[in-house]
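Protein modeling request. Please complete all fields; requests missing the sequence field cannot be processed.
Requester role: graduate student
Desired output: 3D structure, token encoding
Chains: 1
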Amino acid sequence: MKLVVLIPAYNEEADIEKTILNIPRKIFGIDKIEVVVVNDGSTDKTEELAFNAGADKIISHKTNMGVGAAFMTGIRNAISMNADIVTVLEAHSQFDFKQIPDLINPILNRQFDVVIGSRFSNGPPQDMPKIKQIGNKIFSKLISFMIGQKFTDTQTGVRAYSKDAISNIAIVHEFTYTQEVLIDLKFKGFTICEVPMRVSYDKKRKSRVVKNIFDYSCRVISIIIRSLIYHRPILAFGLFGVFLCAVGITAKLLTISHIQGVSVSLSSGLIILGVVNFMLGLLASVVFRRQSFTEKEVRHYLKDSKDLKRHRSIPTDADNF
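Delivered output (321 residues):
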């Protein structure tokens, strides 16, 4: 059983060395542990310090592409390294690394495919800014409602993924990945759970992702909407279509009742647009479903190819004669 610890990092020279050194190299049930650092275009000594601390593999982006892009680079490399479990950690050393076994145990025991290290299972962390607490609560409730499972922390990057889960991750947004991965894997039928994680916040540390709370919120909302359109196009287009039809019908009723005069062409146009939106949802559903089937076929082909190569590399009794 091979565990790959993935650390996306951008200008983390203050913490990266300590983070890597604190990662346990022996865990019950794991035969081999390798640390992979994705240096996302850092301009400081992150790469050098990660190497000195003993990172097994370092991949560097030429420019800062975003934590989502760094995450996917790490996932692709973990797959090529034949990882059985991937644990994603944040480059700063605010989490208790002794809890990594707690993070991977549900996967080792074949209970879940994805495990989230929640900072809020036992209440909000001490010294965490109030604005972050409020933002996390809002987005966690929103995503919980969308995918039909309650989560307390959908923004954390500390997670563990099974071999099957990492083979099925498909995200397209480079800015961040935490919300999109949850939506993607949950809608694909993977099982997800949370385990409580201890965390100590540094008040002086500034987030590498949340530089502006308004900009971050707008980007995350955009990611959530696009993910919903991709995975549930009929629902997404249908809701908007129902809204347009409702406005159009209401406008017609107001005109007929002589309460408020509304242009006939406007009200009729809104109803037509609502119907068109629903039809677009049906079309998008067919297109995205075909794409999903194609992705599965490609994954099965790659898996069968790897299994065949592995089988050919195993010596048989005939090879001994």
